[in-house]
Amino acid sequence: MAIVLCISPDAQSPLSALDALGHQLVQISFDPQALSDAPRHDIVVLDCRHNLMGAKSVARILHAAGWSKPLLLVASESVLAAISADWELGDFVLESASLGEVDARVRILLNSPGNKPVQTAVTGLIIDMDSFTAKVSGRTLDLTFKEFELLRHLNENPGRVYSREQLLSEVWGYDYFGGTRTVDVHVRRLRAKLGEFESLIGTVRNVGYRLNPDGKSVEES
Questions:
Q1: Same domain for 92 and 133
Q2: Which of 62, 122, 150, 175 is buried deepest, with most CB atoms within 10 A?
Q3: How far is 68 from 88, CA to CA, in rounded Å?
Q4: 21 close to 106: Cβ distance less than 8 angstroms
Q5: How would you write the pLDDT of the chain (221 residues) with one tens digit per residue?
Q6: Are residue 23 and residue 108 in the same domain, yes or no?
Q7: pLDDT at residue 128, as a whole number
Q8: Contact 111/102 with Cβ under 8 angstroms?
Q9: Quick check: pTM over 0.85?
Q10: Cβ–Cβ under 8 Å, residues 148 and 132
Q11: Domain end position, chosen among 115, 137, 162
């Protein structure tokens, strides 16, 4: 099942079918701070039913910020004429869509070529979500589940800097009571298993970590 990020000005999910399909739902508002703090997700559902211009502004923000996950727009028939290519959406669905239609559209977006992990040019890092394995330069890494999840999370947005607090909440979950040192320990273990490609995970002094697509050496904190 997918982690679905619903962006809506309303308190309730714009697509009730998502609950029935068993996806993990996370809902946030149109507030820019909420967008900035958005947790890890597999697909974005944007609600434009009741605030068309607000939703269009959000779509532009997501595109400008380089969000790479598929965007599914939830619309009412009355606003369809205002939807165009500049929304940069992957697909749209009417709020009255059946359970089967919502399921099909979500599955197609999740399996679209644009939603596949990108192989880094230098190391050939490949994340395989079907087998929960990771390879670097053709070598399969022997990772624990959390190590895999941490590497996957960093790989989803190469070059983006994540604070230790962000990684702790987004990879371990908000209900995890351990300290941020847990992140440092897992990063050290990941680097050890990456071997000659340890510099793939970079340190940004006094901030956190990022995936370095160019494979340049890390800046130790």
A1: no
A2: 150
A3: 11
A4: yes
A5: 788 999 999 888 888 888 788 888 889 999 988 887 787 788 999 999 999 999 999 998 888 777 778 899 999 999 988 988 888 889 999 998 899 999 999 988 888 755 555 444 445 788 877 677 888 888 899 999 889 989 988 887 778 888 888 888 888 875 566 677 889 999 999 999 999 889 999 998 888 999 987 655 445 44
A6: yes
A7: 79
A8: no
A9: no
A10: yes
A11: 115
- Taking the CB of residue 125, how many other CB atoms lie within 10 A of it? 25
Hey, is 45 helix, strand or coil? strand
Q: Using CA atoms, how far apart are residues 213 and 44, in angstroms rounded to an integer?
A: 24
From the number of C-beta atoms within 10 Å of its C-beta (0-12, 13-18, 19+), residue 161 rates as middle
Of residues 34, 131, 215, the one with CA closest to residue 44 = 34
**What Cα–Cα distance (Å) separates residue 9 from each residue in 55, 76, 86?**
9, 15, 21
Distance CA 220, CA 47 (A): 42
Domain hosting 198: range is: 126-211
Q: Where do the H-state alpha helices sit in the chain?
A: 17-20, 32-36, 52-64, 99-110, 145-156, 164-167, 181-194
As for how many domains the chain has, the answer is 2
The closest alpha carbon to 189, from 141, 152, 153, belongs to: 141
| Domain match, 135 and 106 both | no
The predicted-structure confidence for 4-62, as pLDDT tens digits, reads as follows: 999 999 888 888 888 788 888 889 999 988 887 787 788 999 999 999 999 999 998 88
Measured in degrees and rounded to the nearest 5, phi and psi for residue 3 equal: -95, 115
